[in-house]
Amino acid sequence: MNTNTPYDLIIVGGGPIGIACALEAKKAGLSYLILEKGCLVNSLYNYPANMTFFSTSERIEIGGIPFVSNNVKPVRNEALEYYRRVAVSNDVNIRLQEAVLRIQPLDAAATSSFLPGSTAARFEVVSSRHTYTAANIIIATGFYDLPVLLNVPGEDLPKVTHYYKEPHFYAMQKVIVVGASNSSVDAALETWRKGAEVTMVIRGEAIGSRVKYWVKPDIENRIKEGSIKALFHSQITAIRQQEVDIETPDGIVTLPNDYVIALTGYQPNFDFLRSSGIRLSDDSRLQPFYNPETMETNVPHLYLAGVVCGGMNTHIWFIENSRIHAEMIIKNIMQRR
What we know:
This protein has 337 residues and is an alpha/beta fold. The chain has helices at 16-27, 42-45, 76-89, 108-112, 182-193, 216-225, 270-275, 319-322, 324-336, and strands at 7-12, 32-35, 94-95, 100-105, 123-127, 131-139, 146-147, 160-161, 174-178, 197-201, 229-231, 235-239, 243-248, 251-256, 259-262, 266-267, 302-304.
């Protein structure tokens, strides 16, 4: 299928920021479409089942629609329901389970073939199901899809996961949790409380400074009392079916092991950004280029929104401080029209 009528805007990514962009586009009278490769707010769906947000509910609202929570800080299930209700009640034009494969600018002849006053088709968007054309593109794909790998032998074993969902599966098992972030700490505490024998393997010298303030004392006390073992200044060097080798300050330690939960962080799909023509910085941050006043990239009429803007620095942008990207982008599109 090839859609003949171009959209004013195609939004890649159906997370909170993608939906916020759709609400602003609808308010401005733009024709738009969201393409989401997974389920609605797919990244949030893949968060740990018992996750509590750091932000309060009003700070992750979108479109000025109130988010009423039973808790001071909302939990994952509340957020899933909130964003679903926002999408349904606003009849958001979204196609789920439809991955965008590539975005490419149309040539000048194709662009100029539209009549004055009509929507100019500047881009062709090829998805897993259809081909679309659009005048503007917003990429709001986040960074939760690609884990940062350990790159050690045995990482591809079924016992290794880079995503943690809920603790019961690990009851009465020997579990290694890699990392010292919020997700690592939550996994360590929850699996330990379900009866797992937990060892944390941490590159640095302490639990991460960004760990939620109401959780940090809990994990530090569990480590201090010896309930959860922590190996600091350490890293896994090899994983086998029933044991793991860990490089520590005292040399290589081999521990019996049933499961490895390697929560070593995630990264945007840089190959997709590059293939779309977006320039990235030459350093390790891989920072995408964009105008901070309009969110437009080096590719005219192609914008970035949300946490994908941070490149490898995934601690810059969150829902609460990037939801404004929606207003900035739609304002720029309308001014240029």
